[in-house]
Amino acid sequence: MNSGEAFGHVLRRKRKAAGLTQEQLALTAGVERVFVSWLETGKNQPTFQTIYKLAQALNCAPGSLVDEAAALLDADDSRSS
To answer: Helices marked H in 18-61 — which ranges?
Structure first.
């Protein structure tokens, strides 16, 4: 798993927990729906500004998105060692 995939996994999990569709998250965060899809699949990586907007739309701290993605990467690294 790479960093984009880890972030996408966290974003998808948080979006679903919030009961939002990709379109609803995109509208609230001020980004395109296809961009949310690309983030969730790891095809694109967000800027800090985008992380901040997504976090606001998900009612969470921007750092929590990054920290959870980092934890996934750390877990993945420890399994492959």
So the answer is: 22-29, 33-40, 48-58
